[in-house]
Amino acid sequence: MPNETMRAVTVYGPNDARMETVPKPVASGRMLVIKVSRTGVCATDFSIYTGESSFVRSGEITYPCRIGHEWAGVVESVGPAVTRFKPGDRVYADNFTSCGHCPACLKGDYMNCTDIHSVGTVNCWDGCFAEYMLMPEWHVYPLPDRVSMDVGALIEPASIAYDAFKEVTLGPDSTAVIYGTGAIGLISVWLAKYYGAGQVILIGRTPSKLERGKQVGADVTINSRETDPVAEVKALTSGKGAHLVVETSGSPDALKESFRLCRRYARISVVSFYERDLDGIPMDHLVLQNLKIIGAAGCYGNAENVCAIMQENPVSLEPCITHHVPFADCLDVFEHESKYHADKIKVMIDFD
Ligand SMILES: [Zn+2]
Ligand SMILES: [Zn+2]
Fold it and tell me: What's the 185 CA to ligand 2 centre distance in angstroms?
């Protein structure tokens, strides 16, 4: 059995990604081998591929890197100590792994594990641009029948967006503004509506993506190429501004605008990377308006919570997926990105 192989994509350096035949992982102890069904392509995968990721420049992500951290699949084999899963189970997983036996892990505080690895990124645990994944049982969860493999592969980005709404109360009188029409932007729209925001405003620049935003719950869309978002949001809120802004676009201008289109005591949740330090943030405005700004990068526990919302929310996240590409062709997505660019939200890599 140790001689079995699989295909996997590894990034060896900027603009150097290779599809290779590598050893297939082997289940042992509390580890599972999972056959990947779907892998979502993330902006982070692109920034590792191009070398533009700030984590590549800081040395926290090193090459070679087996990329990919958004996925769902089917259990193929289990180690002898695995108790919760059997071959054939549909599953999803956390975007990190822990050792399972250090003092933090023994308390269930996996994010403070002394041997933590991020799947496909920092201190890389081999990622899901591969036919099979090896995962510890305690980071794997059953995927409910009601949640498709496609949507299951969106649990990871949804678990990031989930942080943007923690400690926020939204009601019929609340306005939530979402910047950005990528997958995390659309998932934020979907969450804002699920949490009861009376008015959800999506700001972007591409009409086809704004249209998909309406399919997941946006009440109003603003094309920032044509309309000034600050004036428009003020007009839509009787001059007061938004209660919550979720900035997912990664545009420094969007972040600066966020300060100006929210009301006093509002919350700004930042769910994107800018890949550099930013100048020109209007801090005095934040102080004067008693604003609160938080960074949202996801944390342990979010994945199960968003999966539960997917199960009960009648609104599907399928409109986030704009492209399906067979795994055999997945390098094309990186090497010829412009082919996909205009209308791309989430590209899903299909393994079957
Ligand atoms: Zn991602
Ligand atoms: Zn540990």
Answer: 32
Give the list of residues 6+ apart from residue 273 with CB closer than 8 angstroms, or none: 43, 44, 47, 53, 54, 250
From the CA of 98, the nearest ligand is 2
Q: How far is the CA of 304 from the centre of ligand 1 (A)?
A: 17
Q: Which residue has the tokens 């799947």?
A: 119
pLDDT of residue 293: 97
Which segments of the chain have a pLDDT < 70? Answer: 1-2
Taking the centre of ligand 2 as the mean of its atom positions, its distance from the CA of residue 106, in whole angstroms, is 7
Q: Packing angle between helix 183-194 and helix 207-215, nearest 10 degrees?
A: 30
* CB 19, CB 332: distance < 8 Å: no
CA distance 308 to 141: 11
Q: What is the pLDDT of residue 162?
A: 97
Query: What is the predicted pLDDT for the residue at 2?
Result: 56
- Cα of 141 vs centre of ligand 2, distance in Å, is 19
pLDDT tens digits along 180-236: 999 999 999 999 999 999 999 999 999 999 999 999 999 999 999 999 999 999 999
Q: 336-339, long-range: CB within 8 Å, 24+ apart, which pairs? A: 337/46
The residue whose two tokens read 């100048």 is 279
How many angstroms is it from 228 CA to the middle of ligand 2?
A: 49
Cβ neighbours, 10 Å, residue 351: 21
Rg (CA), the chain: 20
Residues 6+ apart with CB under 8 A from 234: 240, 241, 261
CB 69 within 8 A of CB 97: no
For the chain, which domains are there?
5-154+317-350 (3.90.180.10), 159-295 (3.40.50.720)
CA of 68 to the centre of ligand 1 (A): 8
Bridge partner residues of 119 (DSSP):
125
β-partners of residue 10 are 18
